[in-house]
Amino acid sequence: MEAKYFRFLKIVGVGYKARAEAAGRLLLLKLGYSHEVELTVPPAVRVFCFKNNVVCCTGIDKQRVHQFAATVRNCKPPEVYKGKGIMYVDEVIKKKQGKKSK
Can you give 36-100 as a three-state secondary structure string? Predict the structure, then answer.
């Protein structure tokens, strides 16, 4: 399968990890929940993991690649106060200031 479209996701957070199994057909995510999040990859998409915190979704159908990347991102969307979560590599998260104490 020739990979024509790519979508890179960055996982930010202490202990947050991703790993691909079954030749890119299964994605396992550790996102700070009490369980691992297990996602099955659609037939037209392949998944690769780099350094436990960068996930690459690739395939020949642009809509399916981007839809699966959005599904992965939706498991733990980026948080605006600490910047933790799953975000696209080219995405910029504007951090909020937080509460001030007296």
Answer: CEEEECCCCEEEEEECCCEEEEEECCHHHHHHHHHHHHHHCCCCCCCCCEEEECCCCCCCCCCCC
